[in-house]
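Researcher: Re-running this chain for the archive, since the previous output was lost when a drive failed. Same request as before.
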Amino acid sequence: MRGLDLRIEPGERVLLLGESGAGKSTFLHALAGVVGDDEGESEGSLLVDGEHPAAQHGRTGLVIQDPDSQVILERVGDDVAFGCENLGVPRDEIWRRVRHSLDQVGLDVALDRNTSALSGGQKQRLALAGVLAMQPGLIVLDEPTANLDPEGVAEVRDAVIRVAESTGATIVVVEHRVSVWRDVVDRIVVLAAGGGVIADGAPADVLSRQGEELAARGVWIPQFPPARPQRAARGSQQTLLTAQQLSVGRNKRSIGVPLDHEILSSHAVAITGPNGSGKSTLALTLGGLLPPVAGAVTASSALAGGAGEHPIRWKSRELLTRIGTVFQDPEHQLLTSTVRAELEVGPRALLLPDTEIDARVDELLTRLRLDRLAEANPFTLSGGEKRRLSVATALATRPRVLVLDEPTFGQDSRTWSELLALLSRLVDDGSSVIAVSHDEEFVDALADSTVTLT
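Model: Regenerated structure tokens:
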């Protein structure tokens, strides 16, 4: 991001938009004083309350895209209290703020709950509670509702607005979905991918005057929904995986009720439900990466092909062409120093010839708009770009079953539509897709059936 001229007044609520990779997250990190100087490169000037952002750490609260990276301490209460302790808030006041902040974001768990036991959506609420407890003058939020269930989206948004109203805090929020924040912000600012600002003004003015242009650039504009692919007629289907009285969990603690379900070829299954209901755990169990607590996941001979009927016992190379899994946090599966090398990992493990590897990698780079980033370090990509890369790494080995956890996280409307088209084609060609998602539009467009956890 460069060439940005912008002034935000005290107490303003600003929704920051732009296509994937436009620099929105970079700008938020700069506002919080955690990018520039020793952490990257900068030019021009950026001031918060008239000072360099690094001098205003106590005045600025940042919620980042990856909630795992913002968890610091082992227990929920201690984690929320951490920022207040660093600011020297009196002990009694700290714990009053901790309880109040957890109530505000709707995270109803014990203060001594282990943070590692929280779901991704619960960790997002935890990160926001820690920021709200500090009572900062500037709150910057990067996709704060991305992995939340619909009820959680409203709770978190409303909690932020209540804090702004009661404290006068300035709010700058990045969110691809305009409809979530449109009615509660004062101003929309749209960053250009090449630098500068495309649009800046009151929400109603920006959306009515430039809505069509912004939609064409990938901004989510409610009145201009993204394209959906036409689905092909289904041919004959085979059973690939079967869940029999399946109970899932971690550390032998079961979540939810036993599940019976068949995963078919040429079929897309959505796993939905509230945060903490076990969706990600179920996905990892179906993917052969977590053992069942009870019951079984078995593979048909059409999928196993001699590897045995229990995916949890398969070797990693056997999984590669049978079941590919995309984690909720894309950074958990990044291994190399360039995007191209990342896409080559799976095919090289399969001992494919170089010509075949190059063909697969080049196709995925182009289809997922990562070709200009082929030599970039994967950890320097935006959240949406990392998500597309993690999907591409799974696709590179062409598995019969693809398991995805929140695949549309961080996507602009254009890359969302392209990702949906790619997955739809996989299903049309005979693969099975299992997708954990809170994205109701994505589920409606792709899923042939839905498993709803409670």
